[in-house]
Amino acid sequence: MIMGSMIKVGMADLKACKCPDSLTTLGLGSCVGVALYDPVTKVSGLLHCMLPDSTQFRNNTNVAKFADTGIDELIKQMKSLGANDSRLVAKIAGGAQMFANRTNSEALRVGERNVIAVKQKLKSLNIRILSQDCGENFGRTVEFYSETGDYVIKAVGKPQKAI
C-alpha cells in the first residue's frame, strides 16, 4: 500500500484528493462527515458540515458549513481532479446527539437534522450511500482512504471500525 499524505479537513471545511492521499477530520459531534468517492479514478472528497441548510442564513459565505452547498462544492472540486459525478458513492458519519435533551427542541436536534439533510441532498444527486455510522451520543474522528475507499471511524472508548 502506497502511503500518501493525510490531509486534514477542518470544521466547516472540505477537501478533495487523489490516491494515494487520504482525508481526515477530527471531532465530528453533531456535524456530519460526508465522504464521496469515485471508485474508478480513486478521487475522494470529505466534507465536515455543521448545519443542514444554507437557505436559513443570509450571509453564508462559507459553503462548506452547510450540507446542501458543501456537497455541491465538494463534487465540483472532485470533478476538477478527474472524478465522474455519475460514479460517485458516499459514506457518512457523525450527526450525534451531543447533549442529553429533555426537550425535543429542534435547535438541539442539529445532528439528526444534519444527517437528514445530507441524505436528502445525496438522494437528489443520485449518489448512493454505501454505509453510515451516524447518531448516538458520542463524537467521532474519521479517516477516508482513497486507495481502498475505507472510511475508518474512531471514537473514544469504542473499537475502531471501517465502514
UniProtKB/TrEMBL annotation:
Assigned keywords, A-Z: Chemotaxis, Hydrolase
GO molecular function: protein-glutamine glutaminase activity
EC numbers on record: 3.5.1.44
CDD domains named in the record: CheD
GO biological process: chemotaxis
Gene3D superfamilies hit by this protein: 3.30.1330.200
Classification via SUPFAM superfamilies: CNF1/YfiH-like putative cysteine hydrolases
Keyword Metal-binding applies: no
Catalytic reactions on record: L-glutaminyl-[protein] + H2O = L-glutamyl-[protein] + NH4(+)
A Pfam family recorded for this sequence: CheD
Top-level taxon of origin: Bacteria
Family per record: Belongs to the CheD family.
PANTHER family xrefs: CHEMORECEPTOR GLUTAMINE DEAMIDASE CHED-RELATED
Functional note: Probably deamidates glutamine residues to glutamate on methyl-accepting chemotaxis receptors (MCPs), playing an important role in chemotaxis.
Protein name, entry field: Probable chemoreceptor glutamine deamidase CheD
Species per Swiss-Prot/TrEMBL record: Lachnospira eligens (strain ATCC 27750 / DSM 3376 / VPI C15-48 / C15-B4) (Eubacterium eligens)
High-level lineage: Bacteria, Bacillati, Bacillota, Clostridia, Lachnospirales
